[in-house]
Amino acid sequence: MTMLVVDDVFSGYGKSQVLHGVSLYVNEGEIVALIGANGAGKSTLLKTISGLVQAQSGIIRFQNTEIQNLSAHRIVESGVSQVAEGRAMLKRMTVLENLRIGAHVRKDKKIRQDIDQIFSKFPVLGERHDQLAGLLSGGEQQMLAIGRALMARPRILLLDEPSLGLAPMVVTEIFRTLRALRDDETTIFLVEQNARRALQVADRGYVLERGQITLEGTGQHLLDDEKIQQTYLGQRA
Ligand SMILES: Nc1ncnc2c1ncn2[C@@H]1O[C@H](COP(=O)(O)OP(=O)(O)OP(=O)(O)O)[C@@H](O)[C@H]1O
Ligand SMILES: [Mg+2]
Q1: Is the CB of 17 under 6 A from ligand 1?
Q2: Residues of the chain with CATH 3.40.50.300
Q3: CATH topology for 2-79+154-232?
Q4: Distance 39 CA to ligand 2 centre (A)
Q5: 3-class DSSP state for residue 166?
């Protein structure tokens, strides 16, 4: 089933247009990666999907409902959860408080249970539940940012450069986590500058250049593409 459809979306900031007719889709249970250079519009696309930036035109459909005119809050409620960019969590709050905040759109009573599940996925967060988030390492903060987004019980998780600034071993750990989440039936739309890692983990991928999709295919197909190798993987033909 197709879970998320972005159809001919134009978006930007005030009069400056960043996305010029972007179309893509994400099927249920997939990891889909979006790669592109600095300033291509990757974060703008994620923010437009999650309602933090208003689309100028086009349609964004999530589980057959148009969401492009809903508030960010309603979009989270409908099952789309974005992992905070740059791990911008509340550093002066504890790990546990951050996870509770992630659940603020929920009305059910199973929050404690889900926190325990996050702690079993990320044991280090359980060990440090009463520590200030700002004292965690970069990798641990990324796990907390993912955990916090999961507390909204999303059907799809949007991630903006989860590997940014992390050591290679920690990056491996984060990508392993994403694969485990996908196997756990969370659909993932991932924005990355680390194109190789992203395409290795992704079922499918898209390339965004200056606000337009210029290439798409399976992760392997894109890894094998000569132009991608030259431009994004640092290889010469
Ligand atoms: N809040 C904003 N107001 C005005 N312009 C913005 C704003 N945020 C981003 N832009 C501009 O929109 C364009 C696309 O930025 P965006 O952050 O979407 O790129 P990106 O692909 O995520 O880049 P990076 O890889 O560096 O994160 C850039 O030219 C940027 O300067
Ligand atoms: Mg960005």
Answers
A1: no
A2: 2-79+154-232
A3: Rossmann fold (3.40.50)
A4: 7
A5: coil
